[in-house]
C-alpha cells in the first residue's frame, strides 16, 4: 500500500488523532501561559527571584520527556493526566523567561506617568506593563507551542492522545507493510499542525500588537 493509499484508508483515525493532538497541546499551552505569566509578574521586579524562576523552569527541560512521563505514571496513572502535567511543565520556560524580559523592558517613564495620573499597581500592570510586554510574551508562547507539538508525541508511551500513537504503532511493527506509512503519517501530521499553530500566532500578533510596537 502506498503512502497516499494509506492516508485515504486511515483518514478518519488520523483526523481523530490530529484533533486530540491539537486539543492536548492547546489546553496545556493555556495552562502554561497563565502559570508562566503569573510567575513572571511575581518575580520580574527581583533579580534573584527572576533568576530562580528561569533556572527552575530550565531545569525541567533537562529531564528527558520520556523519563518524565514514566515517572508520573505510578503517581497519576496512564492517559491524559501524565500528558497534561508533562506538557504544561515543559512549556513554562520560554513563557516565564520572555515574561520577565518583557516586563523588565517596559520604559520606566511610562510606568511613572501612569502612576502620576493615579493608576493603582494592578491597573498599571494590566493596562501599561503587560500590553507593552505582550510581544515578547507571545514569542515565548510560540516557542513553547513548537516544543510541545513534538513532545506531545511521546505521550503515546503513557496511552496519551494524539498522533504519537500512530508513530509508536509504526515503530512497534517495523518490518510490516504499513510501518513506515504509520511513522510518516504521524510525523508529517505533527509538522503540519505545528506550522498551522505558528501561522495562527502570527495572525494573533498582527491583531493584538499595535503597528508602532511591532516596528
UniProtKB/TrEMBL annotation:
Q: Does the keyword Thylakoid apply?
A: no
Q: InterPro entries, per this entry?
A: ABC_transp_perm/SBD, MetI-like, MetI-like_sf
Gene3D superfamilies, per the entry? MetI-like
Localization, per the record, is: Cell membrane; Membrane
Positions of the ABC transmembrane type-1 domain: 18-201
> Which GO terms of type biological process are on file?
glycine betaine transport; transmembrane transport
DNA-binding: is it a keyword of this entry? no
- How is this protein situated with respect to the membrane? Multi-pass membrane protein
Q: Which residues cross the membrane?
A: 24-44, 51-73, 79-96, 147-163, 183-204
UniProt KW keywords: Membrane, Transmembrane, Transmembrane helix, Transport
Q: Which residues are in coiled coils?
A: none
Q: Which domain of life is it from?
A: Bacteria
PANTHER family reported in the protein's UniProt record = GLYCINE BETAINE/L-PROLINE TRANSPORT SYSTEM PERMEASE PROTEIN PROW, OSMOPROTECTANT IMPORT PERMEASE PROTEIN OSMW
Under which name does UniProt file this protein?
Answer: ABC transporter permease
Identify the species of origin: Streptomyces atratus
